[in-house]
Structures are given as C-alpha cells and as structure tokens.
Specification:
Strand order of the largest sheet: 3-2-1-4-5-6
Number of strands: 6
Radius of gyration: 16 Å
Order of helices and strands: HEHHEEHEHEEH
Strand content: 15-25%
C-alpha cells in the first residue's frame, strides 16, 4: 500500500518534470512517422491502426503501435509492443526496454488512444520524444498539442478528423 502511494507520487513528479523539459522545436515537422499509444481496455483493433499509413501516404514501417494493458492475462502473448503496470517500479521508473525504445523514437505525430485521466499512459505520453502529440477530449490537455473531440471507436470519423486537422496545420 505504501509503495503504491510512493509510486503514484513519483509518477506525478515524473510527469511534471517531463512537461517542463519538453522539446517543442520540431512541432511543425511534416508527418513521416506516426506512433500510437493505446489503452487495450479502450481499443483492440490494432490492424486498423497499422492501415493508417495509406491515408497519410506513408510506408507501413512508419506506423508503430504500442499498447498498455493493466496486467497480462495468463495466456502467453507474442506481443512485444506492450507495457503494463508492473513495468513501473515504486520510484515511477519504467523498466521495459521495448517501451523505452518506443518513447525515445522521435515520431512526427504521437496519438494517445485513450480517454480520461490515466496516470501511467499520461507519463508515457509526457516522456515521449514525439514532435507533435494528439489526444482526445477529456485527457490532460497539457500533454497534447491537439485534442480531438471525436470518439476514436468510430475509427473512420477519427481518421478523417485527424487528417483534416493535420492538413490545416500543414503537416500532411
């Protein structure tokens, strides 16, 4: 119980520190790479995410998806692009090499595919080195450069709105 409280406090401190030190120099870069950070409790259709490359005239290799799952199920999983609660220690430090590589990649656009406050996903978004970050209404607006007010479960509407705003901003 005490370790959990310490973990929450340290995660909050890590979030604030990441927000203060964010590099926004590449915020106006054109879209060449897209990363998705997904809460598996909210969204599981990863194939549709990988297909986004067609809508933005990208290569399939330029779209990466990483997901958060509260805790692994008992069934074995071959998915490596996944982070879970236990990957964070009580100091709020991430101990997942694949997740760290994803966060260190300088995506032109990172999309946080989750709604509401989510302490672990918020920290992951904040520590990401992505140049431009897109989130959804109801999340912590300090984390994102653009907030969409559409349900991402209506994926076609989400894609069209995302493309529209990225075109207006001159990123596509």
């Amino acid at each position: 119980m005490i370790l959990n409280k310490l973990k929450q406090k340290n995660l909050k401190r890590n979030l604030e520190k990441s927000l203060e030190t964010r590099d926004t120099s590449g915020i106006n870069a054109s879209v060449v790479t897209i990363g998705f950070l997904v809460n598996e409790a909210d969204f599981q259709d990863f194939e549709s995410l990988y297909d986004v490359f067609r809508d933005f005239n990208l290569q399939p290799k330029d779209v990466k998806v990483f997901s958060f799952i509260e805790s692994k199920k008992k069934l074995p999983s071959l998915r490596q692009n996944q982070v879970q609660n236990k990957d964070f220690d009580w100091k709020g430090n991430l101990h997942n090499q694949n997740a760290q590589e994803f966060l260190d990649k300088e995506f032109d656009v990172l999309i946080g595919l989750y709604t509401g406050k989510h302490q672990l996903l918020d920290v992951l978004v904040a520590t990401s080195k992505a140049k431009f970050k897109v989130g959804f209404h109801g999340t912590d607006k300090r984390l994102y450069d653009l907030l969409l007010d559409v349900p991402f479960k209506d994926f076609d509407l989400f894609k069209s709105e995302l493309k529209k705003y990225l075109q207006v901003l001159g990123k596509v």
